[in-house]
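Students often ask why we bother predicting the structure of a whole assembly rather than each chain alone. The short answer is interfaces. A chain on its own may look different once its partners are present, and contacts between molecules only exist in the joint model. In this exercise we take two input lines together and write out one structure for the complete complex. Read the inputs first and try to guess which parts will touch.
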Amino acid sequence: MNPTDTANPDHYHRVVDCQWACPTHTDVPEYIRLIAQGRFTDAYLLNRQSNVFPGILGRVCDRPCEPACRRGRVEEKPVAICRLKRVAADLKGELTGRVPRGPFERNGRRIACVGAGPASLTVANDLAPLGYEVVIFERQQVPGGLMRSNIPSFRLPQSVLDEEIGLILDMGVELKLNAPIGSMRDLLEKQEFNAVFVGSGAPKGKELELPGRHDTDRIHIGIDWLESVAFEHIKSVGERVLIIGVGNTAMDCCRSSLRMGAKSVKVMARKPRGFFKASEWELEDAEAESVEIIVNRSPKKFVIENGKLAGMLFDQMEYELKDGRITAERVVGEELIPCDDVILAIGQENAFPWIERDLGIEFDQWRVPKVDAQTFQSTNAKVFFGGDAAFGPKNIIWAVEHGHQAAISLHSFLQGQPVAERPKPGVKLQSVKMGVHEWAYSNDYAPLERRLVPHVSLKERFKKLNIEVELGYNADVAAQEVQRCLNCDVQTVFEAKLCIECDACIDVCPTDCLTITHGGEEADLRTRLRAPARVTAQPLVVSGALPQTGRVMVKDENLCVHCGLCAERCPTAAWDMQKSTIHWPHAGDGETACRPKQRQSA
Amino acid sequence: MTFMAKPKVAHPELPRNALGLTRRDYEGSNSTLCAGCGHDSITASIVEACWANALQPQNLVKLSGIGCSSKTTAYFVSGAHGFNSVHGRMPSVATGANAANRKLHYIGVSGDGDTLSIGLGQFIHAIRRNLNMVYIIENNGVYGLTKGQFSASADVGTKAKKGEVNSQPPIDPVQLALTLGASFVARSFSGDKAQLVPLIQAAMHHQGFALIDVLSPCVTFNDHEGSTRSYAYSREHYHEAVHTDFVAPAGQISVSYAAGEALPVTLHDGSCVMLRKVDASFDATNRGTALARIRERLRDNEYLTGLLHVSDSQAEFHDLNRTPDEALNQIPYAQLNPGSAALAKVLARFR
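Now the answer. The structure tokens for the assembled complex follow.
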């Protein structure tokens, strides 16, 4: 193996598993450190730089960071990153003066954003302070997109949405409500926008065309039904409800049903557990509310008796599994499950009936626009896509990153720069050695288990639709949870030429990450380390030849707990602990923001 | 040194020995030695060897005298018994303890000062009695605890940190032990665990006195240019004469050897040391030629390392003294102390 190229910014970025896994690359260890210091407002603002909606995401993020968290590999449970984000949002102080506030001096370029969801709002957030006139068109009477219409208020209160969307609108962004776009041509040609960003989501719920589907009005499309609930168009549901599908939408549907009057709610899954799309914690929350999840039932037909929905017929399935994959399936029987309502939650699709096909925006065979995966530009240079509208349903945090990337593209495009030339990520390293035995971070390993978040009691929570179930950590519990963070951003940096091969670091490393051995190919090296290094997804770091013997220092990054003992023990400072700060580019980095417009003094 | 304790967290896939324990279960308290001290590597090797031998921690006795080396018994196997004795007097305490309980394993850790100056008389008598123990000398050529004066093992011509040059010839514990008839004599280097760990394992299985002289650089007072005991100098001037692989009793010999390359020596308990010749002219089973070869190479400033001499047929302390088979604390009191009448009878024999 060649010596690892630690100068590549991705190298140290990858060590910070949570930040690497986050689509927006939120600086998780640093904001956790700020929370540990009680600097909740600073923690909130650091979050906001990358993920824009810390209060919203602190409640409903898909949390790709948590399965990636190193603590989950060293012990069992990852750091409760998402919940800590919420702590920052819940306990933050005054933001006035710390978030750009418009209106700003305009640069004369106008951008239309279609849909007021997270992607469009992020575009506005990034570009309004740079002087762009951003106009958001929203078909509903309130902004937020699926964050508002599809996430029930018992998980995400309206007030949190209003506050964080408000911060963006206060930058001087124009929001047009009840303004569905009927024609892209009209936007581009008549309204004289310089560019258009489409962040209109994937608003079409998938159909399940089975016998009986259209013979009753008690079969609902999940996302439409959730929207009707959110906007109070419907206020009740039957006593027995079946949900088809086990994604996160299904979880929201079943829990909403319980709050709309249902007594018995069953979620019907075609496959066994382990194949569910819903996040584990959402399944947990649903089951805690006595929702029954029934596996291995494939929908066959809707049973209508006397013009009324009486139940649904399922095939009972049996699967053969090998290495976690289904290798064979067969039908072993049938089952009729009586019900009053059926809610279909089996996926979403994009739909663009309002985009004329002769505008140079090409569509692929699935009738989805062709969008560049880096620039988010369509085949019409003036039109950009992001969020679910670009590549189909993902989640909020991906929509935010799409927004950031599209904002970079829009900025380049409107300044006449090539859109494909992307600003590069960077990394800064700074030693945290403060003196003999003193480090500028808390490196004690805290043997604490993940803290539990309190919930409103099962008796209370069903009284109203909008009682938020999760209560969030208080400051004391947060102070314990933050100690579980392993400070992965405080990097172990090795200087081969200083090493005298005394083995001190190897002897003291608690997780046996380090080995000095003769060089070799990676597969061979992995068999010669102090402790098994079977997780090939985690890189080996290999030094250059050591001065005395020509052997190499090998570090298995997988289980390093960043305790700093290697650096503490090193007699020659060949090891040092250095804090890495990852720079993930955003639109207008390094440029001076436009000055706010002079306001008239009183 | 460090003030931070090694956290208890460990690699979840660490291998376990026959007792179900991991290496981490054989660690001791936090080392207070200088960062980079060779002694810490020796400690880690002892930990590794005790783990690999699946030693019950409570069956180990750790003994030491005074000096940096003698502090290290606190840093391994915290579940063992320990005795930190007076300067140079560790062999006496070991003799007493061993006499009382022959069922335990004894590891004495000493330094070149503790063994070759104040404790030299004690050291040679322990060899003479063939006391069943592992005696490790952490040999750095200086008195580290008193800021780096030359010790009795400092080579002629070696330079102290402040510049003076040593002109007195060293005492070499390996040659001394060979001439006294020691039955297990080895030399190693703290920076070579692949060699040191199997040596310690074999020494623990050897019945009788097992000496391991370990070159162990003092990172603070003897790791500079001009020193003959620095990491760099030791690496350039140590020469492995014979490589030892240890094979536990009833263990499979998993390493393959070319015919005539390896010589198996079976120990009393059925375990085996495989001596693999690295230096063709060296014969570890012949005390005389081994000694001659060690001397010859030392004249060229080269340390021969490995298991330099082994013979498992010599009577050890308990055989020589015809002591009972069990530990004294297992013998009924009336038998252990037969009373004044029995004493009178013994005395009568001398009248």
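Check your guess against this: The CA atoms of residues 169 and 438 of chain A lie 45 Å apart.
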